[in-house]
């Protein structure tokens, strides 16, 4: 819910989270809000599956809980690997920057990709513009 004040509309923390979650889909990198939403979704899925297992005593919910746990572990591992790749790429860019081997395009992509908030637009000549 937004409220208008003299300074303009204010956004509640929940709206800020959901707005950043939707915006994170379109930004490069691994946004924190998307990771939080993923872990929250898997945690709630596990709670529901465990509750259903308790209520029904069905072996099917044991299998579903194991499958969901394996999927959660796989997603967590994949996110950790992506973070490692991003750190390695940043380290290589820093080494290139020190040696002066960083091209104009790479430098521009480094600036845009740093916080994930920059927009990359392609100009008439095919070069990237901010």
TrEMBL record:
One of its GO terms (biological process) is vacuolar proton-transporting V-type ATPase complex assembly. Residues 111-130 have a biased composition (Basic and acidic residues). GO terms for cellular component: endoplasmic reticulum membrane. InterPro entries: Pkr1. Keywords: Membrane, Transmembrane, Transmembrane helix. Residues 105-130 are annotated as: Disordered. The chain crosses the membrane at residues 34-54, 61-80. This is Pkr1-domain-containing protein. It comes from Ascobolus immersus RN42.
